[in-house]
Specification:
The chain has two domains: 1-37; 40-105, no CATH class. Helices cover 36% and strands 22% of the residues. The protein is built from three helices and three strands. The protein is globular, with a radius of gyration of 17 Å.
Amino acid sequence: MCFCLHGNFENCQVLLCVSVVRTPGCVVAFCSAAIMASMLVGSIGEFDTSMETFTAYHERLEQYFIVNSIGLYPFEASEAVKATANKKKVAVMISVIGKKTYRTL
């Protein structure tokens, strides 16, 4: 079930989607905001060895994940939910690190 937070579904840029998964003894609600990339907070940029260490880049990337709610899951989440969240973090990292760094992976 999805709802436009601005009331105009046809031209919606912010969409709230809710789904409920029921398993024996457990009901899990997943909520996500489908927000256009231009509405993300901050920018991470490509990794550049002449500008910073990878440790510093990784710390900034983790903060980017936090502020944009990328790869978050509830404490009691299943292993499948955790794996999906971690895959999203990896996908974002691969998308932003740049071609040169990607070649070295």
